[in-house]
Design a protein that fits this description.
There is one protein chain. By secondary structure, the protein is an alpha+beta fold. The protein folds into three domains: 75 residues, Arc Repressor Mutant, subunit A (Orthogonal Bundle); 172 residues, 2-Layer Sandwich (Beta-Lactamase); 87 residues, Enolase-like, domain 1. The protein is 45% helix and 19% strand. The protein has 13 helices and twelve strands. The strands form four sheets. It has a five-stranded antiparallel β-sheet, sandwiched between helices. It has a three-stranded antiparallel β-sheet with strand order 4-5-6. It starts with 14 loop residues before the first helix and ends with a strand.
């Protein structure tokens, strides 16, 4: 599973320190209560004394992996501790087979409807992870022309329907100086369907072709539409904010407001969604410092679906640091793989899946 690259820590944890850090994370995720050495010894029976556990926890705190609230003697993980846990201590897991079949059945009930799949993926992820979920609609790295229709509405009014590779449809009303028959409009459409097939806006810009004024105007509008498609923010569908706000971390009004801003502001999420769209596998981003300072106390678990060569989107979960990472990662990975397969079927690509390294490959025949 691919994860966000982090600068290598100069601190080297011993196997015993790794075990204690893992136990603290697991206990805190389960209870939201600071974890003391006595509870760890009683729960995990490590074979060494509470004093040894206390000393190791103190050392982990000095190294920045644990901290403790001033009102409690117990420890809680820091963002650094969570990152270490996710990168080094978290085992690979899969969703239970019964849950996978239930999710597949829900998707197959809306076959052929990408908009519904996008909405459903966010809804299913929110319920499965019990946290907020987001999905972006699939798009290509560069918008490409697929098909054009010019439809006469009135003698001086034309509807331009532009279909992009990947299935997006953009419409625009054009006003004419002189009336055009439907036959003339169809001839211009056919000319462009042959001339512009699979071109992006930069390729259209370089075309040297002799066109009459109206056709040149249509060509310019097609190029501008493709350009703006490349520049626009991803369309984000989100579900399950109520799950995240029910976490004790966000019971404070200021903390809740901060989370709502992250969740509903596409500009804050755009850099992370864009990067995830071009990276293989599941990406885990634990906010707090450096480039993730805009994500205070929040973790993102994101995965690309589809294929960068054709059309790709992102599915993911937003939640507190204190997240059940194993279940969340397995849910995000499964939904991404399911969406990859559905997208390849819908648009006639080769049947696609992801291998163990997170790379999109042609699925083997069954």
């Amino acid at each position: 599973m691919a994860r966000k690259r982090e600068a290598k820590s100069p601190d080297k944890l011993t196997p015993r320190q790794e075990a204690i850090l893992e136990w603290v994370v697991r206990e805190f995720v389960a209870t939201a209560e600071p974890v003391g050495s006595k509870r760890l010894v009683e729960t995990y029976r490590p074979g060494f004394s509470p004093a040894t556990v206390r000393n190791e926890m103190k050392r982990l705190e000095e190294m920045g992996y644990l901290t403790h609230p001033h009102t409690s003697a117990g420890r809680v993980p820091t963002h650094k501790g969570y990152r270490y846990f996710v990168q080094h201590l978290l085992p690979e897991t899969r969703l239970p087979s019964t849950l996978r079949r239930t999710i597949q059945h829900q998707f197959f009930q809306v076959q052929g409807e990408m908009d519904q799949w996008v909405q459903l993926s966010a809804s299913v992820l929110a319920r499965t992870a019990r946290s907020a979920a987001i999905t972006t609609a699939p798009r290509a790295e560069h918008a490409r022309f697929k098909h054009l229709e010019l439809i006469s509405l009135q003698p001086h009014t034309v509807l331009m329907v532009l279909v992009l590779q990947g299935g997006a449809v953009r419409q625009q009303i054009l006003t004419l100086d002189e009336p055009r028959t439907q036959a003339e409009l169809t001839m211009i459409s056919n000319q462009f369907n042959e001339l512009l097939a699979e071109r992006d806006w930069t390729q259209i810009q370089r075309l040297e072709v002799d066109l009459e004024p109206f056709a040149r105007r249509v060509l310019q509008l097609v190029g501008e539409t493709l350009y703006h498609e490349d520049e626009r923010l991803d369309e984000v569908v989100h579900e399950g904010l109520i799950y995240m706000l029910s976490a004790p971390e966000f019971s404070d009004q200021a903390a809740a407001q901060q989370v709502i801003e992250v969740f509903e502001n596409p500009i804050l999420l755009e850099p992370f969604l864009t990067e995830a769209r071009y990276l293989p596998g599941v990406q885990v981003i634990i906010g707090g410092e450096g480039p993730y300072a805009r994500l205070p106390n929040v973790s993102l678990v994101l995965s690309r679906y589809g294929s960068p060569q054709h059309s790709a989107g992102v599915v993911g979960v937003i939640g507190p640091w204190r997240m059940p990472y194993a279940r969340t990662i397995s849910a995000v990975r499964f939904i991404a793989q399911l969406m990859t397969g559905l997208l390849s079927e819908l648009y006639g690509y080769p049947a696609l899946t992801e291998n163990e390294e997170g790379e999109v490959v042609v699925a083997p025949e069954e």
